[in-house]
Amino acid sequence: MKIAILGAGKLGLRIAEALLNNDSYDITIVDTNEGKLEQISQTLDVLTFVGDAKTSDTLKQIKIKDFDFLLSCTSSDDTNIIAASIARSLGCKKTVARVCEPEHMNQLDFLCTHFGIDAVINPDMLITGEIYRYLIDKYSLTNGMYCTKRIAVVEFDVSRDPSLINMKMTSFREHLPNFFVVGMSRHGKIIMPNGNDEILPGDMLYIIGEKNEILEYSRKLHPKRKKVEAHKVMIVGGGRTGFYLAKKLSEYGAFVKIIEHNLKRCHYLTSHLKNVTVIHGNGTDIDLLEEEKINEMDAVVTATGFDEENLLVAVTAKSFGVDDAISKVSHESYDELISKLGVDIVLNPLDISASAILRILNGSERVLSDVLLQGQAQLLQIYTSPNMYLLSKDIQHLNLPDFVKIAAINRGNETIIPTGKTKIKAGDHVILICLLSNIGYIEKLTQIME
């Protein structure tokens, strides 16, 4: 498959690195920065081309008519829309454009129809969706279930089943032999547990099993309680993520307060948002946070453009007793630090965007369904076709890395919770879980071998 990536920024490189796990992809990266492309060509096995992505001459020179997929992800919405449209008209089979501005998102259907774009990716909207889903699912007290065919996953705080606290993974299957822990969240970070890991107080568990058994177990874990109609959320940072999230939460009925340091941006937020309180100030100012009654908030979301500031304010929120502190963090270098800070959820917009783009690329023939776990890991249902990499070997011989697990298999009328000696067969529906930071590895597992 031939894939073109227009724009050698963070998202473009993230996608290129993910796709390189699959040997059947030929990748071309286009950018105007010759120096950056030269560095890329020395580290990644891709073709590079210096040119203006929005011109037909550039797209003709790389022979875009022969490409199967194009992702236009430069820093300009207009460039991405035009480039994707031209590529489609020149014969590229599928085009995706990164589009971020609210003004464009308000006419999304028109853009796709009029310009012939197959799909639009908005990183801010994607991360907003994950934060919103977490908050609303939590406060409306849904049961945390994901179901597919005869397999289901339940999400719950371990305090709901105290018998699991301090239990090692090696003992879990003895205690609940038909279930499997696909992941757990600890201090805001998703962990893929192995046999030596222990379930600790405060952990959030994701357990998979046969649907009816999971449903019965879930009923014991999630007693019916009165739905909370609204709650209080403070958002620090009034950029696009803050804007989209405030709009969705206020429409839901929550009390929303945004703290934004840029006065001009405050005016924009005030004029474009209804029923949202906008405060001009620095979100790291403790006195301001106290004045705005941070201690009365149910949740604080930090979504400035600075990772350090986001983490600092989130930790401050926890020190004031806020139940949920959620941070937007773009750099993976903070991974080890995050697990020690006690932040509830940390989301990386690049990881979430990469996951969405790969889902579009793969279509519904290979990936039948998927769901994100706290925006950090992805649970996928894969249809296995003949000659796929992961077939006909014991799972233990696939040498899977720590960041990916095969959680369950639907085979005909049979539900299998696999062991190391289980073999996957063509036609199976396989449930995989993979950390989003390594989601490109799924390309390797599902590639078709010659």
Characterization of the model:
Strands 3-2-1-4-5-6 form a 6-stranded parallel sheet, sandwiched between helices. Strands 14-13-12-15-16-17 form a 6-stranded parallel sheet, sandwiched between helices. With 450 residues, the protein is an alpha/beta fold. The chain has helices at residues 10-19, 34-43, 56-61, 77-89, 102-105, 108-115, 123-139, 169-175, 211-221, 240-252, 263-272, 286-291, 307-319, 335-341, 349-366, 441-446; strands at residues 2-6, 26-31, 47-50, 69-72, 95-98, 119-121, 145-148, 151-157, 179-186, 189-191, 204-210, 232-236, 255-260, 276-280, 299-302, 324-328, 345-347, 367-373, 377-383, 404-411, 414-416, 429-435. Among the domains are: 2-121, NAD(P)-binding Rossmann-like Domain (Rossmann fold); 232-347, 3-Layer(aba) Sandwich (Rossmann fold), CATH 3.40.50.720. The chain has 16 helices and 22 strands. 35% of the residues lie in helices and 26% in strands. Strand 15 (299-302), helix 13 and strand 16 form a beta-alpha-beta unit.
